[in-house]
């Protein structure tokens, strides 16, 4: 198998993970998939920059998050708008899937600054090590750890998670009662 | 709900439970999409790229968005000269 075929297969294999992260990070299905598409296109055209045998998944994630921030800088009006769109579109999706718990989590994630959101997702969802996440984000390992901790604490606070309240029916009910109704988009 | 200050041990135990609960939820959120079959738009894209077809209307981000080397520190987005 040629190096190019290996690279292509590597890209294909990474798509589910990239989509999972993009959807959780950006929050809008069409925009998330657009981001993944741009990432794959960019990765393909920069194939020579990638050293075969090294961490392709981390390399692709680096491209994806850099692309996100690049777009955010170019479209500054979206910075103010991003949380509103994020929550609104997520609540529609949540209703379609009927996952109230995940809808609460998505809404909570939207309230995190992007650097904390990406850190907690890279570690907690995508399964990277702290060292890999620090490479992807271009910051020190300690910075990643601190962002993850802050994100977790903030998520716990927003979701009203206490040590003795699990994510069972009581906690779900409590979360539903305390919600402001933003997730009940018509 | 009343917030009764937990003891140090209870606080640490609560912290672990909370972290695990949040971690489980984050993975569930991610898995919900990651476990979907790959949409056609992506397999079609890879076919097009392999065949040498470009993508119309690129993002214009350029080389700065791509890591120079996987083991090195990836460059931040820089102004293109």
Strand content of chain A: under 5%
The most extensive interface, with participating residues per chain, is: A-B, 64 and 53 residues
> Average pLDDT of chain B, to the nearest integer?
72
**DSSP E strands of chain A, number:** 0
DSSP strand count of chain B: 0
Structural class of chain A: mainly alpha
Kindly report how far apart the N and C termini of chain A lie.
52 Å
The percent range for helix content of chain A is: over 70%
**Gross geometry of chain A:** globular
Order of helices and strands of chain A: HHHHHHHHH
Q: What's the Cα radius of gyration of chain B?
A: 23 Å
Task: Sum this structure up briefly.
Chain A is mostly helical. Chain A has helices at 3-26, 29-45, 56-74, 77-97, 100-110, 114-124, 130-137, 141-159, 169-178. The longest helix of chain A is centred in the first third of the chain and has 24 residues, at 3-26.
Describe the structure.
By secondary structure, chain A is mainly α. Chain A contains 9 helices and no strands. In chain A, α7 crosses α8. Chain A starts with a helix and ends in an 8-residue tail after the last helix. The C terminus of chain B is likely disordered. Chain B starts with 7 loop residues before the first helix and ends in a 31-residue tail after the last helix. Chain B contains 2 helices and no strands. The chains are: A mainly alpha (186), B mainly alpha (81). Chains A and B meet through α1, α2, α3, α5 and α6 of A and α1 and α2 of B.
